[in-house]
Design a protein that fits this description.
Elements lengths: L1 H13 L5 E6 L6 E9 L6 E10 L9 E7 L5 H5 L8 E7 L5 E10 L4 E10 L7 E7 L11
Antiparallel strand pairs: 1-2, 2-3, 3-4, 5-6, 6-7, 7-8
Length: 151
């Protein structure tokens, strides 16, 4: 039981941080706001994503709605691409707690080797069931040092 409580607190704290860059109220009579967060990919530092999600300050659970936009904002090198997970599932590069009931928003990076494009998928999960709501953004490697022109 104690481990479960500690795990829950760690998940809640994982959503805290200085990555919020915007906060838009949805109205005076609602507790919901649209929060804008910035995410710099920890492995591909030349990619910056902005995630917009609805948060409900006084509710136990936030809605699953979110959107994501990712762009190249710096150098993307072949070494960075070589260091990422190339499986079809990709890897989680960001997670944020969305409720005290184990709901989490995640951003997963997946590499499409055929088109040489990084895909960033934003979605919500819950221990009991997931959400069908998701958002996708892509960053092509064309024009970067990592682009392989011999394909």
């Amino acid at each position: 039981m104690k481990k479960l409580l500690v795990s829950g607190l760690v998940l809640l704290l994982a959503g805290c941080g200085g990555d919020e860059v915007g906060d838009v109220s949805l109205g005076i009579l609602t507790t919901k706001d649209i929060k804008l967060n910035v995410l710099i990919d920890p492995t591909i530092s030349g990619v910056t994503c902005h995630v917009a999600s609805v948060e409900a300050d006084l509710d136990f659970s936030d809605p699953s709605d979110s959107s994501i936009a990712c762009r190249q904002t710096g150098i993307i090198s072949p070494d960075m691409i070589a260091a990422i997970d190339r499986s079809k599932n990709g890897e989680i590069v960001f997670r944020k707690s969305k409720s005290v009931l184990f709901k989490t928003m995640k951003v997963r990076r997946i590499f499409d080797a055929e088109s040489q494009t990084l895909m960033y998928l934003s979605y919500s999960t819950k221990e009991i069931n997931g959400s069908y709501k998701h958002s996708l953004s892509t960053v092509p490697l064309w024009g970067t040092q990592a682009y392989n022109s011999s394909r």
